[in-house]
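Researcher: Re-running this chain for the archive, since the previous output was lost when a drive failed. Same request as before.
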Amino acid sequence: MTDRPIIAITMGDPASIGPEIVVKSLNNPEIYQVCRPLVIGDSRVIERAKGTTGVDLAVNPVSRPADGKYVYGAIDLIDLQNVDIDTLQWGGVQAQAGQASFEYIVRSIELATAGEVAAVATAPINKEALKAAEINFIGHTEIFGELTNSHDPLTMFEVKGLRIFFLTRHVSLAEAIKQVTKQRTLDYLRRCKEALERLGVQNPRIVVAGLNPHSGEHGLFGDEEVRELEPAIAEARAEGIDAHGPWPADSVFWHAAQGRYDAVLSLYHDQGHIAAKMYDFHRTVSITNGLPFLRSSVDHGTGFDIAGKGIAESISMEEAIKVAARYADAFRR
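Model: Regenerated structure tokens:
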């Protein structure tokens, strides 16, 4: 079944639960039914993760994607050999772990850009570890955007049919509020429509979440809705975008989950994250739109408190791989 897409899976921070959820995911035969999974990481860390999780899979080192076996029972691995296993500590911020996780991402981008893999699914990285390694990025999205020359990539969560876009991401709440402008909202509504159509959703219905309690009650509790959001939505509708809102954030996600809307445009990081994770923490997957290829990811952190204990759930990693396989062709330019 060589028609299955090759999905590059970055191992994430070597000190985190990333290696454990990767090996657990590849212990699920369903993954091999939908794709050809290729791990980018370090063989010694993978072996250690096998030990903590009890997963008994052989490791098949390869130098390029075309060399993989891609059969259940073997982990095809591009081994960067960039971790000192004797000094690597489970569950802690370490410069070498930040550097290694960055190098896995770089290699995945190289392979995806060259067309050797169809998409990338990423395990979690740690922002403090990146900083310790003097890598000046604050997250996956920023790394992928910069290294692929993609301006302001668009993040979308998908969980059980609920889709959430984000007007702002890794900025303070005060800064996020400043970025709630008519022009930015209109631009994002256009981009959300384009992203949804690429996923196969025709004439998508997009609703904008409100910023203030009760969406401001027509200016009583804040005027961002009246001043910025409503004019943006009106202009988007004039352009033919099926845009709605702003709906109060305490109910808009529920309505979208019931099928009333195809996607919600969340205004800031936690607004959408809380909704998605409360709906189904383990099955929430992040998709980065606006890149030359598809990148999906787990929607949780490095889990340092449970790293090395073999108890981390792999469901989100499995879902990220499946999503990458399902949408890979739609994202290739």
